[in-house]
Specification:
Strand order of the largest sheet: 5-4-1-2-3-6-7
Order of helices and strands: HEEHHEHEHEHHEE
Shape: globular
Distance between the termini: 38 Å
Radius of gyration: 19 Å
Helix content: 25-40%
Number of strands: 7
Strand content: 15-25%
């Protein structure tokens, strides 16, 4: 009998997070095997990156790669081979840098290497009309006093950190197993800019995760790519959510992403308007036929009476010209 990789127990007091967890559980029940478990090793790794912060963006994207750290060595070996053959040691893969021809040549081999990772890649696409967790009770200032107050941050940066903490923490609670270590790496961002902010972010992320996990975890560690002992490997891991977050942010409204007919209301735009780099990344995201890495998109939209509509889907992509 198939055992779901996702764990969900009703916790109404968590509000939106409980609803998101329940929606993912329903998706997992309808699609056995689509979510891959990252929980087999002693340590679960979370690598996160974000998109949709450019002017005119209709949505922001928060992408989380959750994998079995113990078995990531195949990915690291493939990335080193790509660096030796194409990319070089100084370049890093990043969506905004794909105008570079050398990175373009390395893109497909890099995405194929990501297929060897064991776990799930989850992307939250959040309509920019929504503000989530801005008044979350888990972010009490008294708990952060020793490490610096979020009140000293720009509101936009603080709200972003709260979204990352709560949505990433919800994923950790769904995938983690008792006593498992959680190692979380984020790309360079406003909440990893400097030692003080990294410390504040670590405190908040660890606090939120401790409240959301079903059982106690082992060690919790957080840092940016630059703050880890294995910077190049960290950059390669974070590059996976970086590429997907950037492509989905750009493609919002240019492709139709759907589950059944639920997503068909999004207006199509000609495929020719989508950049080739987004097309390549989305084509990979939609094809999990030969991958150990599951893919999941959670779309959060304004609902009725100030609520939030949750849509969970595989990364199906349909060209607008085919509709």
């Amino acid at each position: 009998m198939y055992k779901s990789a996702w764990r969900h127990e009703e916790r109404p007091q968590l509000g939106l997070l409980n609803s998101i967890s329940g929606s993912i559980a329903k998706f997992a029940a309808r699609n056995p095997g689509k979510l891959q478990t990252p929980c087999l090793g002693a340590s679960m790794l979370v690598a996160s990156d974000y998109g949709g912060e450019h002017k005119g963006a209709r949505a922001r994207t928060l992408a989380f790669l959750i994998v079995n750290l113990d078995n990531a060595w195949i990915f690291f070996e493939e990335c080193q081979r790509i660096r030796t053959d194409v990319l070089g040691q100084e370049r890093r893969m990043a969506y905004k840098s794909l105008g570079d021809r050398i990175r373009q040549q390395a893109l497909i081999p890099f995405l194929r290497a990501a297929n060897t990772l064991e776990g799930t890649l989850c992307v939250f696409c959040i309509d920019n009309k929504l503000s989530l967790f801005a008044d979350a009770p888990l972010a009490e200032e008294s708990l952060l006093a020793e490490f610096g107050s979020l009140s000293q941050w720009k509101r936009k940066s603080a709200c972003k950190l709260l979204e990352v903490a709560h949505l990433g923490g919800a994923l950790c609670s769904g995938f983690a197993r008792p006593g498992q270590n959680i190692v979380w790496i984020s790309d360079e961002d406003e909440f990893t800019a400097g030692a003080n902010r990294v410390t504040t972010s670590t405190c908040l992320l660890g606090h939120v995760c401790s409240h959301l996990l079903y059982e106690s975890a082992g060690h919790f560690r957080f840092g940016s790519c630059q703050s880890t002992d294995y910077m190049r490997q960290s950059e390669d891991l974070v590059a996976v959510p970086d590429l997907v977050a950037g492509a989905l942010s750009e493609a919002w409204g240019m492709f139709r992403l759907w589950e059944g007919n639920n997503w068909a209301a999004q207006e199509p735009i000609r495929v020719g308007e989508l950049k080739l780099k987004a097309h390549a990344v989305l084509a990979w995201l939609a094809d999990d036929s030969a991958a150990k890495l599951g893919r999941l998109i959670v779309r959060l939209l304004p609902g009725q009476a100030g609520g939030v509509t949750i849509q969970v889907s595989e990364a199906h992509v349909e060209d607008a010209s085919d509709s």
